[in-house]
Design brief:
five-stranded parallel sheet; alpha/beta; Rossmann fold; globular
Length: 126
């Protein structure tokens, strides 16, 4: 079963996304802060995709992304960047580091699932 890590500080976004992905055949891990996200990536070698909140009061998503890209074990992981605002300059800067960019207020669960499915089949093996 494919595993998705959701690195998101807000339970009001994290919980519905996690439940929806689980209902569609994905194993889901959740992290509410930077340290937890990086720890889960180190401990769970089956993570195949990260849904990463970029703008949080608890951690800097760009910092988590940089850590993912600098580690040989996680460098190639697909990342879906989530944010509360559309930031064209940030999107342009990160265009080579993320596979998709979504604005939380504009994305439905089914659209987010579509992004996940594009990069990670629900029953693939790592």
């Amino acid at each position: 079963m494919a595993t998705v890590l959701i690195a998101e500080d807000s339970p009001t976004f994290r919980a519905p996304v996690a439940g929806y992905l689980r209902a569609h055949g994905y194993n889901v891990l959740c992290a509410a802060d930077r340290e937890e996200a990086l720890r889960l990536l180190r401990e769970h070698h089956d993570v195949g995709l990260v849904v990463l909140d970029l703008l949080t009061p608890k951690f800097d998503g760009a910092d988590v992304l940089a850590a993912i890209r600098s580690d040989a074990a996680t460098r190639g992981l697909p990342v879906i960047a989530c944010t509360t605002i559309d930031a064209p300059l940030q999107r342009h800067t990160m265009r080579h580091d993320v596979q998709a960019w979504v604005v939380k207020s504009r994305v439905s669960l089914s659209q987010l699932l579509g992004h996940v499915q594009r990069y990670l089949a629900p029953h693939s093996t790592p």
